[in-house]
Amino acid sequence: LHFLFYYCFMMIQMTSQILLFQHDLKSLILLFQHDVYSARHLPEMAVRILRI
Question: pTM score, two decimals?
Fold first, then answer.
């Protein structure tokens, strides 16, 4: 019975770690996408600034 409880606890811990990892991965991907988007628009912005 004690082993079963310990096993359940380990599963919950692993699940929470995986969820945290997924969340970190999602925010990392969003950040990367934003950086790529910004980098793509950087030349246009530079041209606009130089024109002004």
Answer: 0.48
